[in-house]
Specification:
Among the domains are: about 175-185 and about 590-625; about 185-220 and about 480-580, Chitinase A, domain 3 (Roll); about 225-245 and about 380-475; about 260-365, Chitinase A, domain 3. It contains 22 helices and 17 strands. It has helices at about 1-10, 10-30, 30-40, 55-70, 80-105, 110-120, 135-140, 145-170, 175-185, 205-215, 245-260, 280-295, 300-305, 330-335, 370-405, 410-415, 435-445, 445-450, 480-515, 520-525, 545-550, 590-620, and strands at about 40-45, 50, 125, 130, 190-195, 225-235, 265-270, 320-325, 350, 355-365, 420, 460, 465-475, 530-535, 560-565, 575-580, 620-625.
């Protein structure tokens, strides 16, 4: 076989095929093949900047976590369309890249020192009002970031915020625009209403009509499909008592726990950045002069306010607050921990520039006793072993359930009890196992409904798994006519009453627009309910009526009112008569004008920002792979 291939590859047919391939590559370009291979790790290109598949994957994961946080732990992530989720995430990354490019082109910047101060001052990362490194790491890890990734993300957020604030803040409003808006917003309307109430008692229905509606709308009268489940529940907490820890393990864990508890130091600094205007040597020399001034008795805080280029601390006299090891730049931290309280360092070079550092205070590490931490130490040591036992038991339960014809044997092997839910439909139960979206999905799957199989292990939460089986399946079926006749009568009665009052109202409306007075209403003593000088937010008036009222054309020059009709949600029909339109007479106060101008300028600024973002996208060179 192989020899035949070798022989035939020397023939004219094979040579012709190779020639065609070479020609195609020449026509389409070898670069297309190279680009296809090189872009396999990228999701898009935005003006030459790549969006990697890894970045897209992280954005998709972030969206999933946001959905779970928004809708709760029982939200079934599998219901999300992966393609739509990736498309949404990619669009978000493209928009973000465009805004970052716009911010950089506009000269927006944020120093690393200012970024440090922003992180240290964020309440989210503080414990008892002070920055806590462990809390910082815990929170960003929960969000899926490394410290470097979080700093990069935060810096980007600040740049985009600067860009948005600049555009929104630059918007302005002319006096003519302000006055025109105020005239509309402060406008009042004099009107009257005549309400025609739906009369359900006047509606007469025959049994044949009810039956005809029942036959024509059978899908509305189906009983809900329901299932009753048997289930076994395995909890991680059941394994804690099965694990023992030794005293020497506890002591070793205690030493590890307190090893990271270092003293906290309160630092202040004066920062000079190295840039086009100030060279490395000049910055250092300038700080040497500042140090001499300090030695002559000048105040460190006053000089920090005067000279420091750290916007986060300069106004506070350079005070950076208390922080432990690992927070600052290594060179900065080494100098700080070499100082005694009240001392000032020589100039120190870091990646942010040159610093003079003063040690303001020292807080000794608060080392808790072994007894106070014992419960935590026991829990920490047991946790990985319990987790291992739990995982093994979950796998054993799933394997046993897969092979069994019911749940009795798997439950017996694990020492568990077979429990039963109440009946529930595809929308799920109100509580417990039946309220879990993954359980609902499994319960109504083909395997469980048709094949009478047991489910796999379903995680209700990180500490609980269940295996379920359909005990009873109640299929959807048409409810008897006698059971739903009363609800059909009620529905049709309201429907006919609403139709009748609307027809009557529209006839009266036509008469009013022709200048006639509805004789029937006059004879019955029905009068118009008059409201004068109603505002757009008038209390006591249905918002639906207000919306219709302020859309009505003004009365004619001869004073003849205008009319319209509105159907309310309760079935009533309301005739609206617009008698007049009032304009604001009093001048706005300076405070009111400022409030209006600020609100309108902000709205205009947001529109400008949206237009700027759209323009960036329109002019951008975007390629999706």
């Amino acid at each position: 076989m192989l020899q035949n291939i070798r022989d035939n590859s020397q023939g004219w047919i094979a040579k012709t095929i190779v020639g065609v391939i070479v020609a195609l590559m020449a026509l389409t370009g070898f670069d297309a093949i190279v680009n296809s291979a090189s872009n396999s790790k990228n999701a898009a290109d935005v003006n030459g900047e790549k969006i990697t598949q890894d970045a897209l994957g992280s954005a998709v994961d972030m969206q999933r976590r946001q959905y779970i946080q928004q809708f709760g732990k029982d939200f079934d992530v599998s219901m999300l369309d992966d393609k739509m989720l990736r498309e949404s995430a990619l669009n978000g990354l493209i928009d973000r890249n465009l805004l970052l490019q716009g911010a950089k082109d506009s000269g927006m910047a944020f120093s690393q020192a200012a970024l440090d101060q922003l992180i240290l001052s964020m309440p989210l990362f503080q414990v008892d009002g002070k920055y806590n490194k462990d809390r910082f790491l815990q929170i960003i890890q929960q969000e899926g970031y490394t410290p470097m990734q979080f700093r990069q993300r935060l810096e980007q957020d600040v740049l985009i915020s600067q860009l948005q604030a600049g555009l929104v803040g630059s918007s302005f409003l002319t006096d003519a625009e302000l006055n025109a808006f105020v005239r509309l917003d402060k406008q009042t309307r004099d009107f009257a209403t005549l309400t025609l109430q739906a009369d359900a008692k006047a509606v007469q229905l025959k049994d044949e009509e009810l039956k005809a509606y029942y036959d024509g709308h059978a899908d509305q009268f189906m009983s809900p499909e329901q299932v009753v489940l048997d289930y076994v529940e395995l909890k991680k907490s059941a394994f804690f008592d099965r694990v023992e820890v030794k005293d020497d393990e506890l002591q070793e864990q205690y030493q590890k726990e307190i090893a990271g508890l270092g003293e906290q130091r309160q630092a202040a600094h004066i920062l000079l950045e190295v840039n086009d205007k100030l060279s490395d040597e000049q910055a250092k020399a300038k700080l040497e002069d500042v140090r001499k001034r300090l030695q002559q008795g000048e105040d460190f805080a006053a000089l920090a306010k005067e000279l420091s280029q750290d916007p986060g601390s300069a106004a506070n006299g350079g005070d950076l607050g208390y922080a432990g090891p690992g927070v600052y730049d290594p060179a900065f931290e080494e100098a700080l921990y070499a100082l005694k309280q009240g001392e000032v360092s020589a100039p120190v070079r870091s990646e942010f520039g040159w610093h003079l550092i003063k040690l303001l205070g020292v807080q000794a590490a608060d080392v808790p006793s072994f007894d106070s931490l014992k419960d935590k130490l026991v829990a920490d040591l047991k946790a990985p072993r319990v987790e291992q036992l739990f995982v093994e038991a979950s796998k054993a339960l799933e394997d046993a359930a897969y092979e069994a014809a019911d749940l009795a044997q798997p439950a017996q092997e694990q020492g568990l009890e077979v429990k039963t839910t109440t009946a529930f439909g595809r929308e799920g139960g109100s509580e417990g196992v039946a309220a879990n979206r993954q359980v609902i999905q499994a319960a109504f799957s083909e395997d469980l409904l048709e094949a009478s199989a047991n489910s796999g292990a379903i995680e209700l939460d990180p500490d609980t798994v269940v295996v379920v089986r359909v005990k009873e399946h109640k299929k959807s079926q048409l409810l008897p006519f006698e059971q739903v006749a009363s609800s059909i009568r009620e529905t049709l009665t309201l429907q006919r009453a609403n139709e009748a009052v609307k027809a009557k109202g529209e006839a009266l409306l036509a008469s009013l627009r022709e200048g006639k007075t509805p004789v029937e209403q006059a004879e019955q003593g029905q009068g118009w309910k008059v409201v004068e000088a109603a505002t757009r937010n008038q209390e006591g008036v249905d918002p639906v009526l207000l919306q219709a009222l302020f859309r009505m054309p003004k009365p004619a020059d001869n004073g003849a009112p205008t009319f319209t009709g509105v159907s309310l949600s309760n079935g009533d029909y309301v005739l609206l008569r617009l008698n007049g339109v009032g304009q604001p007479q009093a001048e706005l106060s300076a405070e009111e004008k400022t409030m209006y101008r600020r609100a309108l300028a902000s709205r205009q600024g947001q529109q400008d920002f949206n237009a700027y973002r759209a323009e960036l996208k329109e002019q951008a060179d975007i390629e999706r792979y």
